[in-house]
Amino acid sequence: MSVKIDIRNVRKEFRIRDTREPFTALAGTDLDVREGEFLTLVGPSGCGKSTLLDLIGGLTEPSGGEILIDGMPVSGPGLDRGVVFQQYALFPWRTARANVEFGLEAKGVPRAERAERARHHLDLVGLGGFEERYPHELSGGMRQRVAIARSLAFDPDVLLMDEPFAALDAQPRESLQEELLRIWEKTGKTVVFITHGIDEAVYLGQRVAVMTSRPGRIKEIVEVDFDTREGDLRAAPAFGEYRHHVWTLLRDEVAAAREQERKVAVGHG
Ligand SMILES: Nc1ncnc2c1ncn2[C@@H]1O[C@H](COP(=O)(O)OP(=O)(O)OP(=O)(O)O)[C@@H](O)[C@H]1O
Ligand SMILES: [Mg+2]
Questions:
Q1: How far apart are CA 262 and CA 256, in angstroms?
Q2: Which of 26, 51, 200 to mutate to test the pocket of ligand 1 (most atoms within 8 A of CB)?
Q3: pLDDT per residue over 187-198, tens digit each?
């Protein structure tokens, strides 16, 4: 399988006001994301997950190392990559349809085709019939679906998702997880999906990349391979084993992250 995103020895430092030492969020981060795979990324809070996603999205530049997509260095944001942020980034003054059309306008897609593509993608995320609703007329889960439809409508090769379902209750979260898997299977996109949920990571990911505490590196990649996706996967014994393995990897990193935060708080970080 070919490599879609090649992250090589990436480093990211931030300058913080009034301090001489740069703050290192990522150091020595290596990761290959395969073409068409669904990769989930977990790690302790503050380890650099969102920082890594921003770098892949081209929203910021690495301080060292490089990120290649299809063998070409990332030099900024592009329509080949769609980003779904944790908070619903919808325009409140636009209807669901007009929100989805937004990126298509920027791309110069003609009006009739825009409307058609918006309808199609809202249908795909189960929002057929809600096209003319404004964000405040939709539930939180529905708004997040609009954001997902918007990023899909650009038809990016790569979907970068930063804890997109974190704010949802279990029930709508599970139905969105299923829809996302269905869309992924149908479209063959490469997905990088950050989550705090171990269950979510194991349920969605073909591989789960576990990061260390800051500066975040990839600690281990767990290949998740179920015989079948039929039935209640979460109840399968193999699911429990994967879950436990990821949990064990994370446990030590979370402890290390707590200790680090304590040091930063007293000024020795
Ligand atoms: N623009 C910035 N300036 C300074 N420090 C930053 C900036 N962005 C992130 N950081 C720091 O870099 C580290 C990594 O942040 P990041 O947001 O990538 O973590 P994360 O793994 O996504 O955490 P969480 O799981 O809580 O979302 C944190 O310590 C954060 O304080
Ligand atoms: Mg984050």
A1: 10
A2: 51
A3: 899 999 999 999
